[in-house]
Amino acid sequence: MINSRFSRVATLYGLFAFVVFAFSFLSVTSFALTTDLIAGQHTVVGQVIVTNDAQYLHVTYQTTGNWYLSATHLDVETDPNAIPQSNGNPIPGKFQYSSTHNPPVTSYTYDNIPAPPAGVTYFIAAHAEVVNGIGTPHVDYDALKLAPSGTYTISIISWGGDSYFTLSITGPDLNGTGYKGFCIQPDPTFILWDQYDYISNVVSSYCSTTLIPVNYPGNLDKVNFILNNYLDKNCSPINGYTFGDIQAAIWYLLTGPFVFDPTPIINGELYYNPSNLSNPGGGLEYVEGELDGNWNKDRALQIIDSTKDLCHEYIPPVDGIMAIIFYNPFSQIAELDFEQYGLCGFGRGQAFLICVHVPTKTCYGCSETAWGKGCDFPGKNWAMYFKYPAGDTGCNETGCDWNKGYNSNDHNGYDHNGYDHNGYDHNGYDHNGYDHNGYNSNGYDHNGYDHNGYDCKGYNSNGYNSKGNKKTGKK
Question: How far apart are CA 464 and CA 443, in angstroms?
């Protein structure tokens, strides 16, 4: 009897142990994750699809359109630091799994990868070399950062309508009238007067530079998102929004949060008042519904909120538009005209942007590097990894941010004192208040001369003004 009872107990215990053992596999919940396969940093050429069963993980590369896989490299780790790297850049040739595809294929799957135990997160780096079988236009990222550049002559034709102002532009790559612009430097000490021509420097909004005079240059891609979602291809507002709504959102993103003051300083205009210091960005003066542009606070905040989920740099579509930045516009004539009233610095206008079409290129049989979309590696290249099974491909989530020595609350790469790698603050000035070219916020160098070699009164170091008249010595 005792042996019989023992036998039954042993049998039940064995069955219980088997069930526990089986559930240790079944506890791995089946989970499917799909993330974009990004080529050339910004072109979606397919997806990476990850699934699992009780024992194995399955990772599938799947291209779309005219793109094909010529090689794939895959690494799956429980710690992102274990992914083979050099100076923070991954090394695909040292990944755990790899294959060359000749001829190129549209789909390839890696099987028999051990499934993650319950509660364990995998960090997956999915690299591929892709080729384009038929000529397909896509965004030319190199040109996006470079074009256009140089020095241009600009003048304001009109204010309001579809944009903050409409301009005439003459220069190497941009010539003509009817360019629509928005202000990005809401500083009343810098004013563009419509009766003067200005000489201005130009740079792409995708160019990494501290010369663009905004507090948050890291939000310029969000401005490009706004241009492509709230304006048509001719830079005119759509879907019931006005240029005033868009202008307010641009100021907010590039200058910082501001208050909406119901008592306007300038009635009938959209006007930024930096004297209100209750918030970092100052105040926006307005009478709702009556301002130039018929702007509305709620609509402006809707635009701002729509940019919050942008994690990686936004790139416009092939048929999209982008912002070109005009900075440090200067009119020597305006400077001299105001000088007679004892006013200096009135020849310098505020920075602004205009809309231009995105540069594109057509690739025939070319090869591009591609990565499964996710979080950036700490190195200088654009390689990415993603997490599984949490389904987290967002760069702001735990585990995606690497320790780079910056304030964790500042995604623009500034330290606790507000300075970047090169020692410049959000406005592009060093600890002594001078920019990369040695000029302060008023446009003057250490000796008090502007970019054209003239001081506040319009005289050069030899005491002559632009008309050749020598300083008299009178005060």
Answer: 19
Digit-coded pLDDT (tens) for 21-33:
443 444 456 788 9
Cis status, amide bond into 114, omega within 30 of 0 = no
What's 46's DSSP letter?
E
Q: Could you report the per-residue pLDDT of 215-258, keeping only the tens digit for each?
A: 888 889 999 999 999 999 999 999 999 888 898 889 888 887 65
pLDDT digits (tens, 9 = 90+) for 458-470: 667 666 666 666 6
Phi, psi of 204 (to 5 degrees): -70, 145
Q: At what angle do helices 297-305 and 243-255 cross, to 10 degrees?
A: 50
- Outline which parts of the chain fall under CATH 2.60.40: 33-135+364-388
Q: What is the pLDDT of residues 320-367, one digit of tens each?
A: 999 999 988 888 787 777 667 666 666 778 889 999 999 887 766 678
pTM here is 0.57
User: Which segments within 160-236 are labelled E, that is strand?
Assistant: 165-170, 175-183, 198-204
The fold of the 33-135+364-388 domain, in CATH, is Immunoglobulin-like (2.60.40)
CA distances from 375 to 201, 311, 348, 472 (A): 35, 9, 41, 63
- List C-alpha distances in Å: 134 to 66, 237, 288: 6, 35, 52
The Cα 83–Cα 45 span in angstroms is 24
Q: Which among 211, 188, 294, 214 has a CA at the least distance from the CA of 247?
A: 294
Q: How far is CA 10 from CA 49, 141, 142, in A?
A: 44, 69, 71
* Strand ranges (E), 342-451: 352-357, 360-363, 367-372, 375-376, 384-388
- pLDDT tens string 204-214: 998 877 778 88
Q: Is the dihedral of CA 283, 441, 145, 154 positive or negative?
A: positive
Give the chain's count of helices (H) and strands (E). Answer: 6, 23
